[in-house]
Amino acid sequence: MKKIGVLTSGGDAPGMNAAIRAVTRTAIKMNMTVLGVFKGYNGLIHGDMKQLDIRSVSDIIQKGGTMLYTARCNEFRFEEGLQKAKAVCLMKGIEGLIVIGGDGSFRGAADLSARGIPCVAIPGTIDNDISMTEYTIGFDTAMNTAMELIDKLRDTAQSHDRCSVVEVMGRHAGYIAVNTGIACGATYIITEEMPHPVEDVIERIQNTQTTGKHHFIVVVSEGVGNSQDIAKKIEQHTGIESRATILGHVQRGGTPTVRDRVAASQLGHYAVELLSQGLGNRVVGFQKGEIVNYDIQEALSMKKGFDERLYRVAMDISF
Ligand code: ADP
């Protein structure tokens, strides 16, 4: 393979830049030319790309976001869009493509691979909701950001004897919630995998009140309920002043942690190695700490387990 493309797609995640850097430098070392494609599959369809050299990816390893920009691209879901993208690849001489994104982006990578452009996908999403890998780029940074913010909320909750209901990101995936919940000593954690009625939260708060606890953190995963309503109900039933805070997109930004930079570098390097061997329709990730690759369809059909033991740890020690 002489020329490859790299793009970021779907939601951004801290560490994507480190992955772009690793892909670019590994490919250049293997005497390949690298084209950076802008705004996900949109850039592929419209030929919006530029050649990346060694210095194009300098000074980005420590930056959040993605220097290639990211976007969603509805056109790419249809045959016409896929054919346009394929034609652009052929015209530009792109023989293989690295796609950094979530499972939606992987579907696109599988579709393009099936049309003759081999793609290798790298999991980049703060939610850690990709089944074939125990780790996705951005997860650690997002958790640390959420943890720091919840710590700050705790300061004010403690000073006022309040309850702070904090909504963290992770739609359909409670990994950020359970980990930050433990790390911040949350009295209760509600996720889609571990749904609990607000009555359970109220009962636990009332029980812990009897042991002398005056302030409370409740971590709620995005999409499992309205955090304002939860705070209101807690206040009504316990008399404890309760406030809801939605952390939102702040969790997506920021300088990536060591773990994200290292994981992104490993995955980027490995993805190029696979592509250089002519392999396509693969997704890379980690299992039991080892770097692995899977067929994209197989990866998409896998189911991720929720660590109920970790959840139990949270509930057993924070009361
Ligand atoms: P993420 O990659 O973070 O899961 P999305 O689900 O929005 O984000 O997917 C990103 C992009 O991947 C979409 O905008 C689209 O271009 C492409 N994509 C998603 N699903 C498919 C699909 N079923 N077939 C082809 N392309 C898809």
Account of the protein in words:
With 319 residues, the protein is α/β, with parallel strands linked by helices. Helix content is 43%, strand content 18%. It is built from 11 helices and 11 strands. It has helices spanning 16-29, 41-46, 79-92, 103-114, 139-160, 175-183, 198-209, 227-238, 258-276, 296-301, 308-317; strands at residues 3-8, 33-37, 49-52, 96-101, 119-123, 163-168, 188-190, 216-221, 242-246, 282-287, 290-295. The strands form 2 sheets. It has a 7-stranded mixed beta sheet, sandwiched between helices. α1 (16-29) packs parallel to α9 and α6 (175-183) runs parallel beside α11. The protein is elongated and about 70 Å long. The model has no long low-confidence stretch (mean pLDDT 96). The structure holds adenosine-5'-diphosphate. Adenosine-5'-diphosphate binds at residues 9-11, 41, 72-73, 76-77, 101-105, 107-108, 111, 125.
